[in-house]
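Objective 1.3, modelling of assemblies. Example input:
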Amino acid sequence: MNDSAKTDRIRLSAEDWEDAALGLIAEQGVGALAVEALARQLGVTKGSFYWHFRTREALLQAALERWEQYGEREVIDQIKAIADPRERLPELFRRVAHERDPHRVYAALLKALDHPLVVPVMARVSQRRIEFLTEVYREAGMAARPALNQARLTYAAYVGFLQLNFTLGLPRLSHDEFDEYVAHMLATLTPQS
Amino acid sequence: MNDSAKTDRIRLSAEDWEDAALGLIAEQGVGALAVEALARQLGVTKGSFYWHFRTREALLQAALERWEQYGEREVIDQIKAIADPRERLPELFRRVAHERDPHRVYAALLKALDHPLVVPVMARVSQRRIEFLTEVYREAGMAARPALNQARLTYAAYVGFLQLNFTLGLPRLSHDEFDEYVAHMLATLTPQS
DNA sequence: TGTCGTCAATACGCCTCCGTACGGTTGTGA
DNA sequence: TCACAACCGTACGGAGGCGTATTGACGACA
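Predicted structure (tokens):
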């Protein structure tokens, strides 16, 4: 039994390294991104790494770009596919509240905002999401400026939610309490229907 | 002109080191807390450090305890001193929105939630603040359960606000836009008066 | 079948930072 | 003035992580 992620492919590509890097970031944070650790996890040595990347920073950069491009589209597209605009907010909230995995990289990156490479990426991603939220609020019937402010507020609540509930494990809510909280959130952050 | 924080006291105490550590954490994050860097900043060498602390972790621990004990009381006490309970929320919001310094350590600690020492501290502090917020909401006229959920939501919005506006510098709002956002926040997170 | 490009192993040097050992200085009280 | 504790400097050992150099294995393709 191979201990973990030892894919039995003999040779690796740059993309394999980037994916592995994102996995490691999601699990242990950006600080834990070391080339020898990654190499061990992939079942090879550093010799391989420095063929694909000039430096450790280059890997981080590439992994972040990969995440920014491919990891984001999904949620937004799926939400946009919902016909009734008023149904989009509730569905969005439900996803965020109950699906943990898609947010792990984002949460990990949130803890690495001291690193100069991740700040611009997070700024772009957050900006884009806020714009998307604004759009959804507008389609739900709000005027332009309130929609923008509401989007900012909702997104801030999302970010704080990640920190408090996921990474901090804070409220230690029971299942019912949690659902009640999500319902409350939905009620106060959704335009009065 | 001494370049920065070179206090002209000849000899240092453990508290001096803890304060300097908190300052460094606020400016550059927990990861930048290195004993030789701190020693340079204080104008001494490691020899001094290891007289006061057994290890680097011990300093972090002590600094965090110091922050948890002394750095928090202030805001809560000042808010509690406001006579009219309905005035407390707006004042609290104003403070958070416009005073940057008191939140710098908290924001820095938010980016260090991968470190095992800071998680319990942040959990306790956040928990206490949420309880305080719940109290304020109750005094403003809300029932028990809604007040609790509202407090959680408001605090999540606060945490996200820190990340997006302060550390990410995200919305790049003008002064007026910013005030408008704060007003919006206040309007939707304050019980209907 | 030989050659070339691709991917990987090994070994090494270097730097940074932690922690230790020990010797030196300064203040203070007997 | 002597002794001792508090505080600090210097020097060193060692671990961990980055990057380089060199060589080796292996498949594709002429």
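Confidence is low (pLDDT under 50) at residues 1-8 of chain A.
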